[in-house]
Predict the structure.
Amino acid sequence: MSQKSRQEVLQEARERYRHRGRKGRSRLLDEVSALCGYERKYAMKVLGGKRPIAGSGRQRGGSKPVYGEAERRVLKEIWLAAEQPCGKRLKAAIGVWLPHYEQEFGRLEERLRGRLESLSAATIDRLLAPCRVTLGKRNRCGTRPGTLLRKEIPVRTEHWDVAGPGWVEADTVAHCGESMEGDFCWSLTVTDVHTQWTETRAVWNKGQHAVRQRIAEIEAALAGFDACPLKKTATSLCFADGNPQARVMLIGEAPGRDEDIQGKPFVGRSGQLLDRMLAAVGLSRTAQDRESAVFITNVIFWRPPGNRTPTDAETQMCLPFLLRTIELQKPDVIVCLGATPAQRLTARTDGILKLRGKWVTANVSGRNIPLLPTLHPAYLLRQPAQKRLAWRDMLSLRQMLDAH
């Protein structure tokens, strides 16, 4: 929990503590002690006003920060163009890169340029630290699948009978020169082993239209996917909603009654609550710009009978489609609504109350993506008192997006 969130919780709890009886105060002390990690005696002094709330009094001394978002914005562009070097190498190269930056993005102010040239290697690393958390390690190979995807694709090790046509080999080639950074074209080549018949197609790996087209292809493939028994009892396929170019991907568990009727995720009462939660932190599923848009999908794409929890077998059947969607959409941040998506993407078995509010990393196709588990809106409708926890998670999401 951040210091600001703790201050908000303690200020609210202090007001409630003043107007409660003995039993009510005891329950409130247990709640605050568990939430903030305080000993009971210390929590009693804080709520009783005998001790100040940490961070609300006199601020610690020290010099004010000299460098900020303006320097980080320029450094990030140069750092990405130079293939993410360490601070020592970037400091030596920054004088060479600045003229190219100005040619691409416009002339810098003399004062800002002087601060950039005077940055130390340690300061450069400190300013770029949030960027490294989001982007993860640089990938030099384009054919390194993540562990989750490898588990879902069985590999045949027995002898293949290639006496007749029908057995093929497939390969992809990245036309990227010496760098895997940026946009470039891939060649997909499929060859029949027996006849040597070869077909080649070009794929633009990160273009907006290509991403939309590939996601539409996944939705079409799901519509023809008959292996999941839930399809037989559901009214319609409920795949996704929002902007495929969004920085944020929200992943729920499974559609409900209203979602099954309309064919879109989160359109019922829980969806309305989710829209209000997103709007409170400047996000919307209808936004066109990437910064304020979201993309919403589920682990399961058909409604389970009676809104029951999906079985492990049903989840495993749909998981490859979800992983492929994440790979194509390339979100900067994933928010898991409920325990099922968080458990599937992180391989953890804890409940959502233990998982929520803690940033972890999901590895999908070799790409590390920050992931935040939070409470499902349907749970919040049943337990309104827990909305304060979801609000802290939304604030944490906003802070993560602002830092990157």
Observations:
- The radius of gyration is 25 Å.
- The CA atoms of residues 60 and 379 lie 40 Å apart.
- The longest strand covers residues 168-175.
- DSSP finds 17 helices and nine strands in the chain.
